[in-house]
Amino acid sequence: MHEAAAQPLVSRRAAGPLRATIQVPGDKSISHRSLMFGALAVGETRISGLLTGEDVLRTAGAMRALGAEVTHNPDGTWRVAGRGIGGLVEPADVLDMGNSGTAARLLCGILASHPLFAVMTGDASLRGRPMRRVTDPLSACGARFASREGGRLPLAIEGARDALPLEYRVPVPSAQVKSAVLLAGLNAPGITRVEEPEATRDHSENMLRHFGATVHVEVAGAGRIITLQGQPELRAANVVVPGDPSSAAFPLVAALIVPGSRVVLPAVGLNPLRTGLFATLLEMGADIMVENRRTEGGEPVGDLVVSHGELRAVDVPWQRAPSMIDEYPILAVAAACAAGTTRMRGLKELRVKESDRLAATAALLAGNGVRVEIEGDDLIVHGSGGPPAGGGMVVTHMDHRIAMPALVMGMASGQPVTVDDGAFIATSFPGFTALMNGAGAAIGAA
Ligand code: S3P
Q1: Strand, coil or helix: what is 347?
Q2: Ligand 1 centre from 297 Cα, in Å?
Q3: Residue among 55, 326, 399, 421 flagged as catalytic
Q4: pLDDT of 2 higher than 80
Q5: At a CB cut-off of 8 Å and minimum separation 6, what does 167 contact?
């Protein structure tokens, strides 16, 4: 498969404070789901604020290959003419999900209960990621999967003709696994029931309701039990995608660590199952204000106003991991600049992201003069209470969420920070470099 050429980037210390209003791109999780639910609904769904990152464009391509019409309107909105549940057509070619685990795993759920044959692949990062976490539970509905060793892509899928509803307790906190089971349940009769021992992002549940499905959520300790009434008639709906809190995290931490900065981030999603980073940074003494709290498209949003200030170390409990799972690398950068030793607990799931993000985060810090340890599944960062040394070359392992934190670190470091490849930033945050440079950063080709 063709892989694009690497794009090395270097980030030098910002010449002055960051001052800007930065509109971060649309939420990646909600963007994938809006295209998928739009394709499964009857009628025309209109989406505004869709993330046009490469991951989401892969989902758009897959939905087209399954027979939905997906078009980008001249006014920037997207239109999806859906096929209805059960109405998808067999894709004529391999579905290439690029770098996107969310696209691949959620699509497995949809395909499991449609009587179609499909083959799915992805880039070298995605082909290394575990898929059994979805194919094992989905097999119980009658679907058949054949994969490479260890359940890795490429994967051949024979969807069930008469799918059975699933009852599943998700063994690891994963919104992708939960969502895959719920999506399979859409084309099975009766009740699909998913139990999660720890609550994870609930965008699928919210959007299912928004499209007219009957979903019940019961709180059970720290977790939830979700039941879905199968074979609903999903009705096309309008979706407003909020700014991605996981993308907002990068300019936000940049503003916290570059002296004198003040940055405004309008319309950022504030779903409580996504805001663990903001809670943690507030505990560290960060100056973050939320203005204009409101609800848009069924999701809470607000404008964040972030100012530079001193940060202190914190102990991040493992229970918080699901609500900030993608934010640990950038939190580690903030922790490197904070006074004292920060411990982040329970990061096992970071090992199976776009890279082994636990090891990659530790290497990012260590290569730039920060003292760091991994103890079991915990990451321990010894902060200096000021700017890190920098000067390192960070290996990004095809992982956007290693590249961006490294570049943010460079904005405050003594010496420039280089990344071996910034190309994967486009999977989730197209325009990142230009936006940051517009705010006062100095990021360029290395
Ligand atoms: C996502 C769930 C999380 C997250 C990913 C997006 C989703 O993955 O890391 O970026 O949209 O459901 P897991 O389900 O593997 O925790």
Answers
A1: coil
A2: 20
A3: 326
A4: no
A5: 192, 193, 194
Cβ count within 10 A of residue 67: 16
> Buried b / exposed e across 329-368, counting CB within 10 Å, b at 16+?
bbbbbbbbbbeeebbbbbbebbebbbbbbbebbbbbbebb
Cα(259) to ligand 1 centroid in Å equals: 33
List Cβ<8 Å contacts ≥24 apart for 153-156: 153/97, 153/104, 153/120, 153/121, 153/122, 153/126, 153/127, 153/129, 154/94, 154/119, 154/120, 154/121, 154/127, 155/108, 155/119, 155/120, 155/121, 155/131, 156/117, 156/118, 156/119
* 8 Å CB contact between 235 and 43: yes
Task: Report the helix count and the strand count for the chain, using DSSP H and E.
Answer: 12, 24
Strand pairing partners for 269?
Answer: 301
Looking at the DSSP assignment, which residues form a beta bridge with residue 101? none
Regarding the beta carbon of 326 and ligand 1, being less than 6 Å apart is answered yes
Task: State the Cα–Cα distance between residues 252 and 156, nearest whole angstrom.
Answer: 41
Q: In whole angstroms, what is the distance from residue 83 CA to residue 121 CA? A: 23
Q: How many CB atoms lie within 10 A of CB 123?
A: 23
Rg (CA), the chain: 21
Contact 261, 308 (CB under 8 A): yes
**CA distance to 77, 215, 238, 241, 270, per residue, from 295 (Å):** 19, 20, 14, 11, 9
- Ligand 1, pocket-test mutation among 110, 126, 129, 176, most atoms within 8 A of CB: 176
pLDDT digits (tens, 9 = 90+) for 78-126: 999 999 999 999 999 999 999 999 999 999 999 999 999 999 999 999 9
8 Å CB contact between 330 and 276: no
Q: Where are the alpha helices (DSSP H) in 54-113?
A: 54-65, 101-112
Pairing of β 69-72 and β 95-96: unpaired
Provide the terminal-to-terminal Cα distance of the chain, rounded to the nearest Å.
Answer: 26
Written as six digits, the tokens of 87 are 């109405």
> Which ranges of 8-165 would DSSP assign to H, the alpha helix?
28-40, 54-65, 101-112, 132-139
> What six digits make up the tokens of 360?
């990659």
Helical segments of 155-275, H only: 175-185, 203-210, 245-257
DSSP string over 364-416 = HHHTTT-EEEEETTEEEEEEESS---B--EE--TT-HHHHHHHHHHHHHSSB-
pLDDT tens digit sequence for 142-164: 999 999 999 999 999 999 999 99
User: What is the DSSP code (8-state) at residue 312?
Assistant: B
